Amino acid sequence: MEVINRYIAIKTHVDGAPEESDFELKTSPIALSLAPASNEVIVKNLYVSIDPYQINRMKSYSSSQKNSEFAVGIVPGEAIDTYGVGKVVASGNPEFEKGDIVGGLVSWGEYSVIKPGGMLNKLNPMGFPLSYHVGVLAFSGLTAYAGFFEICKPKKGEKVFVSAASGSVGNLVGQYAKLFGCYVVGCAGSQDKVAFLKEKLGFDDAFNYKEAKDLKSTLKRYFPDGIDIYFDNVGGEMQEAAVDNMNINGRVAVCGVISEYTDDEKRAAPSMMDVIYKRIKIQGFLAGDYLNKFADFFTTTCDHLRTGDIKPLEDISEGVESIPSAFISLFRGQNVGKKMVKIAEE
């Protein structure tokens, strides 16, 4: 049986803020059966992840492209790989059977052909919606968990600041920190998001960074006794302001710098004098660095989900044709929580 596979590609490299015109919906025939000697796996995609870091893969050049196997450059016109969840429709690999639910590196499309050695694992939903396995129980969750516990090494009662706190990672950092016993303040880009952080997710406080005329004084107001931990999702001036307000032996986990991805002029630098004399640790990291912590993260987070102590925050669009607008929304501050696209019903 042969079907037409629809998938999203970029027309040319994207070196600024992404626009709808940068993308195209392409089609190609795909056979839903395999030759007897094949060891490939054909997956019907169900949910695909939409992540800001992909913009760096779309650029004509980014240093990230040579420093991570997950961030290699994207070739215009070709299918774009991403993390996702799907269902096996044909398999020549003895580890997978037709009907298996799987998670791994699939494409921004309706079907994916996974070659030998591709990142693919059988998935036990554990009674949770499949969407959880693209966000809170996947790389967004692991990023928040590892960044907070392994890099920041929190102590109960410490003061924690989270930027982009309503995003896919930030909201989970705040929830983990509160469960651990920390004081948590987040920032977001609208009053509705601020209210959500405080009223629904239990942040001690939050503010709209777009209304802050002076970030350094704003943080001083929310942290009169200083910041112990800063989980950085945006970089730029926010990082400068956070370091200015940090306590001695403060820790900064640099997860993302979305403010700089599409505008190099927003690049900023914290005071190195503060970093030295306050003995501040600033560390960048990738979720893939902490795959050895996945079992601990997964068990802990499943327990919190079952008790209702962690509330998943998801922003789901539908249909492969919605992928470009879903991606663009990340850079316009329109998403709340983990952005993903539902491609098909199970």
UniProtKB/TrEMBL annotation:
Gene Ontology molecular functions: oxidoreductase activity, acting on the CH-CH group of donors, NAD or NADP as acceptor
Keyword Oxidoreductase set for record: yes
SMART domains given in the database record: PKS_ER (SM00829)
Enoyl reductase (ER) domain mapped to chain residues: 16-341
Record carries keyword rRNA-binding: no
InterPro entries (UniProt xref): ADH-like_C, ADH_N_2, ER, GroES-like_sf, MDR_fam, NAD(P)-bd_dom_sf
Keyword annotations of the record: Oxidoreductase
Matching PANTHER family: OS06G0602900 PROTEIN (PTHR43205:SF12), PROSTAGLANDIN REDUCTASE (PTHR43205)
Protein's name in the database: Alcohol dehydrogenase superfamily, zinc-type
Source organism (scientific name): Corchorus capsularis
